[in-house]
Amino acid sequence: MSAQPSVIAITKRLVERSKPTREVYLERTRKAAEDGPNRSVLSCGNLAHGFAACGVSDKESLSGDRAANLGIITSYNDMLSAHQPFETFPALIRTAAQEAGGVAQVAGGVPAMCDGVTQGQPGMDLSLFSRDVIAMSAAIGLSHNMFDAAAYLGVCDKIVPGLVIAALTFGHLPAVFIPAGPMTSGLPNDEKTRIRQLFAEGKVGREALLDAESKSYHGPGTCTFYGTANSNQMLMEIMGFHLPGASFINPGTPLRNALTKEATRRALAITALGNEYTPAGVMFDERSVINGLVGLHATGGSTNHTMHLIAMARSAGIMLTWEDISELSDIVPLLARVYPNGPSDVNHFHAAGGMGYLISQLLKGGLLHDDVRTVWGEGLTDYAIEPKLNSDGTVAREAAPARSANAKILSTVDKPFQNNGGLKMLTGNLGKSVIKISAVKPEKHVVEAPVKIFTTQQALQQAFKAGELDCDFIAVVRFQGPRAVGMPELHKMTPPLGVLQDRGFNVALVTDGRMSGASGKVPAAIHVTPEALDGGPIARLRDGDMVRLDAASGTLSVLVDDAEFAARVPAKADISESSHGMGRELFANFRALAGRADEGASVLYN
Predict the structure, then answer these.
(1) Domain annotation for the chain: domains and CATH numbers
(2) In whole angstroms, what is the distance from residue 239 CA to residue 374 CA?
(3) In 351-363, which positions are buried (b, 16+ CB within 10 angstroms) versus exposed (e)?
(4) What angle, 0 to 180 degrees and rounded to 10, lies between the N-to-C axes of helices 206-216 and 189-200?
(5) DSSP character at residue 66
(6) Whole-model pTM over 0.85
(7) Terminal C-alpha separation, the chain
(8) What is the DSSP string of 79-146?
(9) What is the chain's alpha carbon radius of gyration, rounded to the nearest angstrom?
(10) pLDDT tens across 291-330, in order?
(11) pLDDT over 70 percentage in the chain
(12) Which of 462, 426, 315 is nearest to 21 (CA)?
């Protein structure tokens, strides 16, 4: 199937812009492939160290250069519900590899923090930078040069983007991503939100809030709302790093285990030792990036990926921009309603038809490039399937259902929930920013109101509790960018702003911080660039200035005389308290080196 002309035009523009850097990257990848991947370049001492702890049969296999060795990069820890299931995966993978005539070794572990635990806490200031730490940690594991392919075990917010950056940095190695799957459904998301707002208003206590949260996040697996973690899983499948149908199968089920075993066999089959060599850096190209963005828009995915996808693409020499993202959003319809874009969760999404149905609809509409390489083979049509379990415990794949099992959750390209993806770039005299409006009511897409300025989300919460925010206003929370404090997510502001909107006030948020995949019903211009610390226009705002946030026209502007506004001295803020504690002092160099949000907010590529 061919993509429609508008998708092809954006792709061609991306290809042309990326040519100089992409060609250098591909040449380096080709050279690395020629130098390896094999163990023949290692000395006997090197190799002996590399398999010293292996069993006899694995040592024999690794002594030669015909048995493929699969390096496992794992983000397992007991605290992240999404990553706890990975505890048992290495043993499963090792057994499957041996059965396939190969070897698998855990090459290294990477840190994985939970944004749900650190929301509103000092540790959140490390969250964004953990992506680049993960990429570097994975590189250390793979630098032993013992491996013919890599299997990446990761799910959540910064973990998967960091692992992708590592996979593309080692682009001569095939890379298969293996998910753990979502937890089973708990307390409905709209009920959880209702309790949070009641707590914000002081109408219920902490005991009721904790009870609701515990019933929402109650077991192993990914949180079930459609935030960055589940956006990651969608991306890995639609960009071809997952096996078809792998993303949203619950942990601890026979089908989940069968998919993990199959992923192991597939990773061993696509090494340079066989006939289907699929190096990650060649497989992942401009068409893959566009497919990922189309999926992101069609599902109302995470705003974090306006940074992560840029950083991932740059690690493969592909120069993606916010303009590309916004232009695609205008032509990709919203096909999924998953919380916060609707009441349902990802388990309901999967039951309604899931990724297979979504991909089939996007292919039907000419919105995806079918002519891409994936870890499964050639073409994305193979991903328009529904995974099942054979009687012998292997994976079966049937064609995706022709109709959605629930039209309130998954619709068609002919009758979408809205005609655009809702993830847009805003421009104006306050710089560039990003807004997600897939969960925002149309009548709230334009807000013009005086600003109230804060330098922390805690200050906004205090003002709310003091009754100082019962009016129309736009909250400006600045000095939250990557160079200032590490660009934390600011979700502690969501309940009070939601309460104020429900009271009938016109409210919005403008910030150089983040809101991520849980961005909800309150219009929020986020990732404002240049950030306040760099003297961006947001630093020249004053309390009472009229600001117009217009998601319909894609603008964010302060309604002050241009000359007067330009003459203002940018405000300063004392953010010294955010430079230490909970390890933040160790990341001073990261804050100093961080790139702009529209360039990926990376210390690796800026």
Answers:
(1) 7-182+223-399 (no CATH), 185-218 (no CATH), 424-599 (3.50.30.80)
(2) 7
(3) ebbbbbbbbbbbb
(4) 160
(5) S
(6) yes
(7) 36
(8) S-TTTGGGGGHHHHHHHHHHHTT-EEEEEEE-----HHHHTTSGGGGGHHHHHHHHHHHHHHHHTT--
(9) 24
(10) 999 999 999 988 999 999 999 999 999 999 999 999 999 9
(11) 98
(12) 315
Q: Which two tokens stand for residue 111?
A: 């840190």
For residue 119, the tally of other CB atoms under 10 A from its CB is 19
C-beta contacts of 191-195 below 8 A and 24+ residues apart: 192/216, 193/340, 193/498, 193/520
Between CA 376 and CA 397 the distance in angstroms is 13
Report pLDDT digits (tens) over 206-215. Answer: 888 778 777 8
The pLDDT value recorded for residue 599 is 96
Closest CA to 521 of 461, 591, 454, 435: 435
User: Which of 220, 226, 236 has its CA nearest to residue 301?
Assistant: 226
Largest CA distance in the chain: 77
